[in-house]
């Protein structure tokens, strides 16, 4: 069932690449830029006002020295899964038309990620975001996924 849905319904392939600086989210069948997006893979918190900024809001801040940056990934490993999930949802919202229960997930992860972190990614996909299916691909293989 997994591979048949993955191969047949190309419009429901959601791709996520958690970069240390940029989070890339897209739909595999869409070759145009409207169905793929990049956002910062961190949030910023103003030290004085305690306001929180995400995505373009960070770029619009004139005084970056007042901002404290909070990253969900540290040294290439998932550190704060709740923050990462929030950033994924923002990426989904920017693309539009992504319904996790009706979509397959292709998650590009490093081949050396510890088992516990892979388990947390699966928990985020299946339990928190309720994706119907999941394909975990190593970074070198993820580009082949897009070309098929």
Task: Characterise this structure.
The protein is α+β, with helices and mostly antiparallel strands. The chain is built from five helices and ten strands, in the order H-E-E-E-E-E-H-E-E-E-H-E-H-E-H. The chain has a five-stranded mixed β-sheet with strand order 3-2-1-9-10. Strands 5-4-6 form a three-stranded antiparallel β-sheet. Strand 9, helix 4 (115-128) and strand 10 (133-138) form a beta-alpha-beta unit. The chain is globular, with a radius of gyration of 16 Å. Residues 136-148 have low confidence and may be disordered.
Query: What's the gyration radius in Å?
Result: 16 Å
Using the alpha-carbon principal axes, give the shape: globular
Give, in order, the helices and strands: HEEEEEHEEEHEHEH
Helix content: 25-40%
Q: Taking all residues together, what is the mean pLDDT?
A: 77
The amount of beta strand, in percent, is 25-35%
Q: Please, how many helices?
A: 5
The largest sheet, given as strand count, sense and whether it forms a barrel, is:
5 strands, mixed
Task: Assign the structural class, choosing from mainly alpha, mainly beta, alpha/beta, alpha+beta, or little secondary structure.
Answer: alpha+beta
Number of strands: 10
How far apart the termini lie comes to 18 Å
Order of strands side by side in the largest beta sheet?
3-2-1-9-10
Unreliable parts: 136-148
């Amino acid at each position: 069932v997994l591979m048949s849905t993955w191969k047949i319904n190309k419009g429901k392939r959601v791709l996520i690449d958690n970069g240390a600086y940029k989070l890339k989210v897209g739909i595999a069948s869409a070759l145009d830029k409207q169905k793929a997006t990049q956002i910062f893979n961190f949030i910023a918190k103003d030290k004085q006002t305690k306001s929180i900024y995400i995505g373009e809001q960070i770029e619009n801040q004139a005084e970056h020295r007042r901002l404290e940056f909070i990253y969900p990934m540290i040294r290439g490993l998932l550190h704060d899964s709740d923050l990462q999930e929030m950033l994924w949802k923002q990426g989904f919202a920017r693309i539009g038309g992504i319904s996790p229960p009706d979509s397959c997930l292709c998650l590009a992860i490093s081949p050396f990620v510890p088992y516990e972190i892979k388990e947390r990614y699966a928990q985020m996909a299946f339990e928190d975001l309720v994706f119907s299916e999941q394909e975990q691909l190593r970074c070198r293989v993820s580009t082949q996924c897009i070309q098929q």
